[in-house]
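User: Second chain of the day. Same drill as before.
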Amino acid sequence: MSQRRTCSCPVCGQDFALKEGISPEEYFITGFISLYAARQKEEQLPCPCCGENSMRSTVTSNALSRHGDIYICDACGAEEATCPKPIKEWVLMKAFLNPKN
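Assistant: Same format as last time:
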């Protein structure tokens, strides 16, 4: 019988089960991207990739990232089409993974 792996959220402290083959960091990144993507539909936010206020007001008129169901600005979308940047290098992810105290 395999042991169930769990991890605690660094924000709220709640324990949750980890899926097999996914590191805690990947799990948090996926969850955070999902939250940001949902929030994009409610208000105009900066581009999660470059951090610039270059997003169009209608979120679906921006470029859809290949990293998931999240929109990025057209410039980042064009760059991602030719030379994708790892998601850990996105401005949003750097801020999430390395918060300043």
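The longest helix spans residues 24-40.

User: Great, on to the next one.
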